[in-house]
Amino acid sequence: MRDTLNLLDWVKAATRGDTIEYYRGNLAQARHERAVLIDKNKPVPADLDASCARADDAWTLHERGAAHLVQRRIGANEFSYLAVRR
After folding, report:
1. What is the pLDDT of residues 51-86, one digit of tens each?
2. What is the C-alpha separation between 79 and 30, in angstroms, rounded?
3. What is the DSSP letter of 54?
4. Count of CB atoms within 10 A of residue 21's CB?
5. Distance of CA 21 to CAs 35, 46, 72, Å?
6. pTM
7. Which one of 4, 6, 41, 53 is separated from 13 by 20 to 30 angstroms, measured CA to CA?
8. Distance of CA 38 to CAs 35, 41, 51, 71, 85, Å?
9. What is the Cα–Cα distance from 18 to 25, expressed in whole angstroms?
């Protein structure tokens, strides 16, 4: 589910050090799966597309200096991807 507004609202309301999880799983694997589907001209499931878009939105916040991006290992091949307000 793409929730860009949620990330934008969060960054406006958050104070330095506040954290939000923007993805849980293996983002590199999800991006690869999406790229393979696009290369094969196959439909990308909406949830996969939205998850990658949300990660793109988090990256944009990072590029604008609004957040640090970090990850925590949850288990084998599973991570929690976090944006930390600067």
Report:
1. 999 999 999 999 999 999 999 999 999 999 999 999
2. 12
3. H
4. 12
5. 23, 19, 10
6. 0.87
7. 53
8. 5, 5, 15, 26, 32
9. 21
